[in-house]
From TrEMBL:
InterPro entries in alphabetical order: Agmatinase-rel, Ureohydrolase, Ureohydrolase_dom_sf, Ureohydrolase_Mn_BS
Reaction catalysis annotation: agmatine + H2O = urea + putrescine
Family the UniProt entry places it in: Belongs to the arginase family. Agmatinase subfamily.
GO terms under biological process: putrescine biosynthetic process from arginine, via agmatine; spermidine biosynthetic process
Organism expressing this protein natively: Bacillus methanolicus (strain MGA3 / ATCC 53907)
Alphabetical UniProt keywords: Hydrolase, Manganese, Metal-binding, Polyamine biosynthesis, Putrescine biosynthesis, Spermidine biosynthesis
Pathway as given in its UniProt record: Amine and polyamine biosynthesis; putrescine biosynthesis via agmatine pathway; putrescine from agmatine: step 1/1
Name of protein: Agmatinase
Domain of life (superkingdom): Bacteria
Gene name per UniProt: speB
Amino acid sequence: MRFDEAYSGNVFIKSHPSYEESEAVLYGMPMDWTVSYRPGSRFGPARIREVSIGLEEYSPYLDRELEEVKYFDAGDIPLPFGNAQKSLDLIEEFVDKLLADGKFPLGIGGEHLVSWPVIKAMYKKYPDLAVIHMDAHTDLREHYEGEPLSHSTPIRKAADLIGPQNIFSFGIRSGMKEEFEWAKQVGMHISKFEVHKPLKEILPKLAGRPVYVTIDIDVLDPAHAPGTGTVDAGGITSKELLASIHEIAYSDVKVVGADLVEVAPIYDQSEQTANTASKLLREMILGWIK
């Protein structure tokens, strides 16, 4: 992918025209090759960009404007349809390049498996990396019906790579019994059902550490985000998720990268989910890119 000119399609609101001058890079990972229920998240990045035109550029939560942060929208990584391993390799190479250039990577999915190659790239640069994971699902399976490349496996893969004690999951309300038992046995942190309160308690323990944050939109209750591949009742509100993003922003953790995944616009004619995701990204940009 070329970085010598701005992305020619729709870009996220107030994207900076220069890759070289930008502190952060927004990029799409339009992949849904391994989903176990409903496909469609590959269309999420494009639609989130398109609806961002309706956003205000100012955040009253953080008292910052998007003009204060130079971020470049690189568009979507061109991924080969149906080829999961090649797609993951291309994502890892892409993020390797961003990190080599000193950029803050902010990804948009796509299914949650796309977070795995990003975490691999981040770990190469930050060997003391911690991961904050907000999701309805544990994503701790080793495989799904015999397939190790599945959107239900990325957090298990990350835990095996960086150590389960360095993974902190919040909002979890769905998964196999064996996944919860494994997490307990190996000392991985899982907060069931809630995000903001347990996150607030954990953040001081991560002070000063490089942290990657991955947010699956289905951490929200389907009432707030129906446009996703695997909806799961009993989730948090968009207000709580915003508060959690701000809690991280005001903490002493060093956010070094992040992603927002699993928006599937086709299942939400109201576009509530895409619009919510767009606002969440604005707050992530303004709160985490210093």
